Amino acid sequence: MPHPASENVRLGATFMCVAMFMAACVDVAVKALAGSYGTPQIVLLRILLSLPLVLTFCHLQGGLRSLLTPHWGWQTWRGLLAAGANFGFFYSLSELPLMTAVLLAYVSPVVIVLLARPLLGEHIGAHRWLGIAIAVAGVLAMLGPGAPAIDTDEPLSGPALGTLAVLGSALCWALLSISNRQLATRENPAVMLFYTMPVSCALAAVLTVGHWVPPAPGDWLWFGLAGCAGGAIHFSIVLAYRHAPAGAIAPLEYTNLIWAALAAYALFGEVPNATTVAGGAAIILGGYLALQARS
Description:
The protein has helices spanning about 5-35, 40-60, 70-95, 100-105, 110-120, 125-145, 160-180, 190-195, 200-210, 220-245, 245-250, 255-270, 275-295. By secondary structure, the chain is an all-alpha fold.
């Protein structure tokens, strides 16, 4: 008979894979909408449509009354970081191929390791530096001459601006992840999740004024997918880490790439070139080595 611990790890791994599938669904939905709607409108509707699931999560985790007493300074900071992560990544999907944006976003684990030293006092050993170096080489390869991300005569527009946006998004996400650890013993996870939304929602609402595009009936399916999958991600991740240790299931976050690659090819006809594949592989390997060295 399987040991109960192994059964828990399998269950945790299942929840993590579900979460990464949901994350890919959000990426695909936003990519499908990016050609017809502005980033603020996509951010706004994605948040509003995910709100029922997020509030349900808050109710299950500690009751809605827990939302009344957060650490306001921290939550404002986290809200700004979440806005940067959302707007940056969603905008990048309007300018870059899906796989290019997703692969560049995976530099965030390396940024977390780098920032953990000054912000958390964590030591960066030789294995971490090796992972960081490999990941940085991968980013430079994807940004090098001839790479689709910067092959433009206008370096601050189009794909080049999209590249800067996704790298900025990765930085914001890394800082947001570090703040999760800083608040881990002081704040309910559901409260931390909820307060990543108001700043993004308010900013998106302001920027949408005068630029609202009435969604086509069929596009509501994409908006609904982005909202529902976005809310479901957090349920799944919490359940994953509740049943299994982080070291056992964290590498499964990379299964997101499988779904994203299949969707990019099937829905958008994207076939990554050799530079994108090689650079992306280096980013993934570097991030994996850096994170493994932390455990």
